[in-house]
Design goal:
Elements: H1 2-11, E1 24-27, E2 36-38, E3 41-43, E4 48-50, E5 56-61, E6 71-76, E7 79-80, E8 84-88, E9 93-95, E10 97-101, E11 107-111
Antiparallel strand pairs: 1-2, 1-8, 3-4, 4-7, 5-6, 8-9, 10-11
């Protein structure tokens, strides 16, 4: 696992991800398991997604100046994409995303459980 991460950093390979900004997700692993939210930002190089209000950590900061006071600051850290699942609003279940090609040649995302367009 460690060797693969080093090789990926040197080659700068983008990880293919089916999740997009604005998708409704549910956390399936970690301290926030079972919580739902919308994706705010996708990091393709690291394979992570940022969801506001989920995976929040506290950082103790020293006072920098009068304008920047010190104290406890809450930071939202990105989650690995493998720890979240797409949440289908039609069937109300966590599911995987599939693709379907129309007769016109356009590629659409579909829910793997209920086969509806996303």
């Amino acid at each position: 696992m460690l060797v693969q991460n080093i090789v990926c950093r040197k080659l700068k390979i983008k990880i293919k991800m089916k999740l997009k900004k604005g998708d409704q997700i549910i956390v399936i692993r970690g301290k926030d398991k079972g919580r739902k939210g919308k994706i705010e930002k996708v990091f393709l190089k690291t394979g992570k997604v940022s969801i506001p209000g989920i995976n929040v950590y506290k950082k103790h900061a020293r006072q920098q100046s009068e304008k920047k006071p010190g104290g406890i600051i809450e930071i939202v850290k990105p989650l690995p994409a493998s720890n979240v699942a797409f949440f289908c609003s039609k069937c109300s279940k966590p599911t995987r995303i599939g693709y379907q090609v129309d007769k016109k040649g356009s590629k659409n995302r579909i829910c793997r459980k209920c086969q509806t367009l996303i």
